[in-house]
Amino acid sequence: QSVLTQPPSASGTPGQRVTISCSGGNSNIRSNTVNWYQQLPGTAPKLLIYTDNQRPSGVPDRFSGSKSGTSASLGISGLQSEDEADYYCAAWDDSLNGPVFGGGTKLTVL
Amino acid sequence: EVQLVESGGGLVQPGGSLRLSCAASGFTVSSNYMSWVRQAPGKGLEWVSLIYGGGNTYYADSVKGRFTISRDNSKNTLYLQVNRLRTEDTAVYYCGGSPRVLHLYGMDVWGQGTTVTVSS
Fold first, then answer.
1. Which chain B residues are Cβ-neighbours of A105 within 8 angstroms?
2. Which residues contact residue B54 at a Cβ distance below 8 angstroms, ignoring those fewer than 6 apart?
3. Which residues of chain B from 64 to 93 reach within 8 Å of chain A, CB to CB?
4. With 0-12 CB in 10 A as exposed, 13-18 as middle and 19+ as buried, what is A38?
5. Which tens digits make up the pLDDT trace of B24-66?
6. Which residues in chain A are contacts of B112 at CB distance < 8 A?
7. Cβ–Cβ contact B103 with A under 8 A
8. In principle, which of A96, B36, B64, B68 could form an S-S bond with B81, CB 3.0–4.6 Å?
9. Can you tell me the mean pLDDT for A35-43?
């Protein structure tokens, strides 16, 4: 059971906008920045968003991140079939004195 | 080209040991944040260990006292020594680094993964 809670699944149709939530607490999301990773089937994770809302070079601007209080969100606009993947939030936890992942959300493009 | 190449996984009996290696190219391991992350079959990602700065380290409670992260600057390689292995350590182990975004837990380059199977 992770200290960061994500919905196990999400879905949308091509072109739609979807949002994936990540809920934490005072020791992680409220006091530290949030990163988001995408993992396509059978591959290593890929950094999608860092420091709450920054995109690494090469990540399309269809992907966006936001944070408020003890929750964070990943937004994906103009949904495409290749976005079908598992998505993980991550944050530093002051109580654990280390980084933690959320449980992951499996995104299905219908 | 920035790249990580892992090796060292395999089949090992409970109680056994392995040393996982992660060779870097295109950036310097010793001056970057480096991590090991694992994924058990059908499960989510788990942050196993992290090394940064002059040798600061983090270990998940599940591996503390059994796993050791280290760096060889001359070989530009990251290691994870895994001892007293348990069946629940069975997973794909990924190494990651942050040479581009320079974020403590923002790994922007990853290895291909190496599989550790613990079974009798």
1. none
2. none
3. none
4. buried
5. 999 999 999 999 999 999 999 999 999 998 899 999 999 999 9
6. 44
7. yes
8. B68
9. 96
